[in-house]
From TrEMBL, chains A, B:
This is glutamate formimidoyltransferase. Residues 181-296 form the Formiminotransferase C-terminal subdomain domain. Residues 3-180 form the Formiminotransferase N-terminal subdomain domain. Keywords: Cytoplasm, Folate-binding, Histidine metabolism, Transferase. Its EC number is 2.1.2.5. One of its GO terms (biological process) is L-histidine catabolic process to glutamate and formamide. One of its GO terms (molecular function) is glutamate formimidoyltransferase activity.
Length: 299, 299
């Protein structure tokens, strides 16, 4: 069975259709790679591409996309609502099949080195590829954005992982890294009190003492007049979905509040849901790789 | 995305390695088809092959396997514990991806016609391909076994669906049909009283008034000294796994008995488990085809 890696590069262009279509053409032109999805947001002025491929193909595709973006996108003229620091802002690699996060870290380093070597764009390694604890979090790396990067890189603690302390004049700086697949998962409560959703989000998220691989905030769903615990599950093996659901359930009870539903936003690996089925159905000794039929069909 | 069909032919040979390996060679030689698994049981004197492939490939592979079996297996000399009526006893086709049961019924008819036309083996269509209600159930078709088929086929109500009322002298009779994927699913109880497992099995199985697509019996797990409700879920969309688990749970309570675990035996489609995750996690408006990442990788 072949190894499959996902790559979700974010580009600082969400308006110019010629450039976006150019990126699509580049992505589709690399053997061993499939472009699963791409979406652009004009007000963010940003596009997100989702590709999957084998180890060689995904590295080539990532590099060629970054190269094309560096030739077509001028950050000195970029405006958009979303924080950004480079023509290609961030390039995460995600293990999908028969591949570990550690292998994706290696892939991220290969691509980072090549981008810097051939295109002279300085690179920060982030998430599981980070070389220092304060580079795990993309928001910390990106703080100051494109306009602030010239000065930021001169600080010794913000010397890039690849390249000199000097931004690319038009393509800026890019973050490259490996991470587990992310599942965007929201739990809806039968209350219109957002304070309750906020309190529960604080309980389940890792940053305030909850589950290590859960990020969460309370949000109000205005159209339904209900409060929601909105989460990013950044490692569904380390923090399974059922565990936050059951925790939200017993914490909400304190307020006489119940769970009325949940939402998975966008894509999820099958295993993130099957792990929860295993828990609730109490399945003994289930072997995901061997017993799920579809795993024998992917190659 | 390509359509994927599974085929699980059962052959009346579980001892002669040369014949079994010959079947393996045939299966592996058909383009567009992958042999996922095969297993032989010497006391049953029977082998079960599991193949997946595209619509053309799976039909060709099924035919070539039946042809090889008809040339190598002599039913007049066959002995084994498992009921059987042909060198190839039964050939089910199962929809796996982007294909309906109705399309698998068409596939089964194509293969049935070709087997009869080229090999002169009479065919019964069974399960979802059955042309009469009393031919849905394989056990009813097979009753009398190979030795009784010569007389059985002479009865007007048991005229084959393809071919004359005359068995193939050495290859006997074969059943061909389409069905949903089957999930072998057992629920373990914290009691050593098999009567309770039997009573609950009777409640959940369709044949005695329970769920239409559930077959079940009570069995004793001697090594663990616990009783089990052992089930075949013959259509996990019609009767989801969580529904029988929750029913078993509330029926067992009457006896002060609890569920201590469950088992999935062998392969299961991912969707059979994800449907249950959706229920327990209360996921709203989940789109299995679009939101499960792996579904975009299969082609």
């Amino acid at each position: 069975m072949a190894k499959i890696i996902e790559c979700i590069p974010n580009f600082s262009e969400g308006q110019d259709q010629a450039i976006i279509e150019g990126l699509v053409t580049v992505a589709k032109g690399v053997p061993g790679v499939t472009l699963l999805d791409y979406s652009s947001d004009a007000s963010h002025n940003r596009s997100v591409f989702t590709l999957v491929g084998d180890v060689e193909g995904i590295q080539e595709a990532a590099f060629q996309l970054v190269k094309f973006a560096s030739e077509k996108i001028d950050m000195t003229k970029h405006h958009g609502e979303h924080p950004r620091m480079g023509a290609t802002d961030v390039v995460p690699f995600v293990p999908i099949k028969d591949v570990t996060v550690a292998e994706c870290v290696e892939v991220s380093k290969n691509v980072a080195e090549r981008i810097n070597h051939e295109l002279s764009i300085p690179i920060f390694l982030y998430e599981d590829s980070a070389q220092k604890p304060d580079r795990v979090n993309l928001a910390r790396i990106r703080k100051g954005q494109f306009e602030g990067m010239t000065e930021k890189l001169k600080q010794p603690e913000w010397a890039p992982d690849y390249g000199e302390a000097k931004i690319h004049p038009t393509a800026g700086v890019t973050a490259v890294g490996a991470r587990m697949p992310l599942v965007a998962f929201n739990v809806n409560l039968d209350t219109d009190n957002i304070d309750i959703a906020n309190k529960i989000a604080k309980i389940v998220r890792g940053s305030s003492g909850g589950f290590k691989y859960c990020k969460g905030i309370g949000v109000m769903l205005e159209d339904r007049n209900i409060a929601q615990v909105s989460m990013n599950m950044v490692n569904y093996e380390g923090t399974p979905l059922y565990r936050v659901v059951e925790t939200i359930r017993f914490e909400a009870k304190r307020y006489g509040v119940n769970i009325i539903g949940s939402e998975v936003i966008g894509l999820t690996p099958a295993k993130a849901l099957i792990d929860s089925a295993e828990y609730y159905l109490q399945i003994e000794a289930f072997d995901y790789g061997k017993q799920v039929l579809e795993n024998h069909l992917l190659n």
